[in-house]
């Protein structure tokens, strides 16, 4: 209990320092900096403060989007990230709550915001069929909106289907490795390891416990871990057993974190049944501590930024009440 209190205090102190640094102008970030933005931290459930899964990683002047769940376009806007700059997308698997924000992002960044560069999309077997189906669904709109200002060439998508554990993307400073995980009716499913300038962020994807999470998560700077937790009432429902079997329970997460000792463990794709609101979030922490993981832990909230420099900084969601509209082909943030 004493150790837990120390950890909680350390985390609170880190967040305090971050708030002071939050106004650093964009573009001044060091080339070695890795910026992780939690755009969507929820599962398929409807929640007022959690959209479905989407994580943006920015490093070396590039933006990499992992999954594009419901609300991704809105959250990009709310975090002052220009959707036009998001052109590389990596899917963990093809469940609807991880892909359904794509049409919004793909079409609106084109005709509304003036995106001129096509997409590259990585995902499991089946991704090409999913993309072809989306392009078919929007045929009318594509044909009618294409004009001198909206070049349909920008709507092209190059698909890279992943077929196993492999490096799926690399440039001079960044390497992204996909590794198989176990998500039952969501298989084939992958986690990702993102490496840049000696820093490593690991995304579990949707999965139950899998040895690859320990292999790739070992001493990672940040692990973004899916999690499922239920009230006792839900836990005993027969229909919940399959759901519990395809996601990571708190006991499994604690085992992974204790084996890997990450710089910061982050819960995202948070599936809570009968555990609504901040009280449910606090229960996630309490139950994780009860499973003997006492290291740094953050229950993800949409629009939280995690900045990796020579330290790990957590910037809480910024106030957005006076955020200007983003509805024109105008310069907008970074
Ligand atoms: Zn899933």
Helix-strand blueprint:
Blueprint: H1 2-21, E1 34-40, E2 54-59, E3 62-66, H2 72-78, E4 88-90, H3 96-99, H4 102-111, E5 119-124, H5 127-137, H6 139-145, E6 157-162, E7 166-170, E8 174-181, E9 189-196, E10 199-203, H7 211-217, E11 222-230, H8 232-235, H9 241-246, H10 250-260, E12 264-273, H11 277-290, E13 297-299, E14 304-308, E15 312-315
Parallel strand pairs: 3-4, 4-5, 5-6, 10-11, 11-12, 12-13
Antiparallel strand pairs: 1-2, 1-14, 2-3, 7-8, 8-9, 9-10, 14-15
Residues 93, 95, 183, 186, 206 line the site of zinc ion.
Can you describe this structure in just a few lines?
This protein is α/β, with parallel strands linked by helices.
Describe this structure in words.
With 334 residues, the protein is an alpha/beta fold. Helices cover 30% and strands 27% of the residues. It contains eleven helices and 15 strands. An eight-stranded mixed β-sheet has the order 6-5-4-3-2-1-14-15. The longest helix is centred in the first third of the chain and has 20 residues, at 2-21. Mean pLDDT is 90; it is low at 1-28. The protein binds zinc ion (ZN). Zinc ion binds at residues 93, 95, 183, 186, 206.
Instruction: Output the CATH homologous superfamily.
Output: Ribonuclease Z/Hydroxyacylglutathione hydrolase-like
The mean pLDDT is 90
Question: What is the radius of gyration computed over CA atoms, rounded to a whole number of angstroms?
Answer: 19 Å
**Number of beta strands:** 15
* Intertermini distance: 42 Å
The amount of beta strand, in percent, is 25-35%
Bound molecules: zinc ion
Q: What's the order of the H and E elements?
A: HEEEHEHHEHHEEEEEHEHHHEHEEE
SS-based class: alpha/beta
Helix fraction bin? 25-40%
Low-confidence stretches: 1-28
Largest sheet: 8 strands, mixed
Arrangement of strands in the largest sheet: 6-5-4-3-2-1-14-15
Determine and state the CATH class: Alpha Beta
Count of all domains: 1
Q: What would you say the CATH architecture is?
A: 4-Layer Sandwich
